[in-house]
Specification:
The chain has one domain. The radius of gyration is 17 Å and the shape is globular. It has a two-stranded antiparallel ribbon. Strands 2-3 form a two-stranded antiparallel sheet. The termini are far apart. It is 0% helix and 18% strand. The chain is an all-beta fold.
Length: 103
């Protein structure tokens, strides 16, 4: 494949990542990962070449505002204290059906 004039390879996107995850049972006691948690894996990039995450959003299902913490981890099965790195958080809406995005 030919490189561009700045000697960089073009970015090829071969499929869209769009996952729906129910976070009703997901919980981490604090921002720092410690002990047992029920965090859920959303995108497993441990076996792939990589991914570009363009948008992360929440659709509220109730009237209680919840905090959604985001982590990067090298483990594909469980969020471990020595492998999970906190990268940000955002809050869900307080009106059912309302979309909130990170950023």
């Amino acid at each position: 494949m030919a490189a561009t004039s700045t000697n960089k390879q073009p970015l090829l996107v071969d499929r869209v990542l769009h996952y729906v995850v129910d976070l009703n049972t997901a919980a981490v006691a604090a921002i720092d990962v410690a002990g047992t948690n029920t965090a859920l894996l959303i995108v497993d990039g441990t076996q792939l070449d990589g991914a570009i995450i363009e948008d992360i959003y929440s659709i509220s299902r109730g009237t209680s505002q919840e905090t959604i913490n985001l982590y990067l981890s090298t483990a594909p099965d469980y969020l471990r204290p020595n492998e999970g790195k906190f990268i940000g958080q955002f809050k869900s809406a307080t009106t059912a059906g309302t979309v909130t995005t990170m950023g």
